[in-house]
Every structure is written in structure tokens, then in C-alpha cells.
Amino acid sequence: MVTLPPWAIAASSDYFSRQYHTDDEMMSLAIHLSDRNITEGTGGPFGAAIFERHEDGRCTLVSVGMNRVVPLGNSTLHGETVAIQLAQRKIGSFTLSLEDG
After folding, report:
1. Phi/psi at 96 (5° precision)
2. Model confidence at 101, in pLDDT bands (50, 70, 90)?
3. Spacing of C-alpha 56 from chain mean position
4. Is the pLDDT of residue 100 over 80?
5. CA 100, CA 97: separation in Å to the nearest integer?
């Protein structure tokens, strides 16, 4: 099972409660995840975040991911694939489409 490292689980409420409005804010989170993954010694320097962009300009964080290749012994668990897998699990769909149909 794909899991986040303990520090990411502990920090998740902070990440998900933030307001995101700009690409810079969203990229800043991905860079933070990458840096923290190295600092904590829980994987390689790769972080990712998936957002839903709303018509009013808000962006809602759907999932985060970071490199988990070595800790979980799976060569496919790059940051972006972890974020995609966790987003699919959260949404309950392989398409990541938030629209019906």
C-alpha cells in the first residue's frame, strides 16, 4: 500500500487547511515537500501536489506525494505517481475527473 512518511501525515492538516490561489503558492508546496523529504531522510528530492482549480480562483489541495521509492521498495513510487495514486484513492476514480460523467 502506498503511504506517506510520518512527518507528511502529521503535517497534512496544515497543508489541506491552507488557501491556495496562485501557481506560485501551489509550486511552493511541492518544493517544500521535496525539501522536507530529504531533510527527514524519508526519500528522494521529489514532491508533488494535485489541486482542483475552482472558477472563483481558489485551488483546493486534493493530494500530496513525495518520492517513496527506497522506503517502500517500489521503483514506480516517484513523487508525482504517489500524489496521483493518493488522489485516485481519495476521489474514488482512476480518471481524477471531479465532474460527473
Report:
1. 60, 15
2. very low
3. 22
4. no
5. 8
pLDDT, one tens digit per residue, over 67-89 is 999 999 999 999 999 999 999 99
The one-letter amino acid code at 6 reads P
Cell digits of residue 48: 508533488
Cell numbers found for residue 29: 508546496
Distance, in Å, from the CA atom of 74 to the CA atom of 57, rounded to the nearest integer, reads 36
Residue of 33, 35, 37, 36 whose CA lies nearest to 50: 33
What 8-state DSSP symbol labels residue 20? Answer: B
Contact by Cβ (8 Å): 30, 22: no
**CB of 70 closer than 8 Å to CB of 43:** yes
- 15-55: pLDDT as tens digits: 999 999 999 999 999 999 999 999 999 999 999 999 999 99
Give the global pTM.
0.91
C-alpha cell at 67: 518520492
DSSP state for residue 43 in the 8-state scheme: S
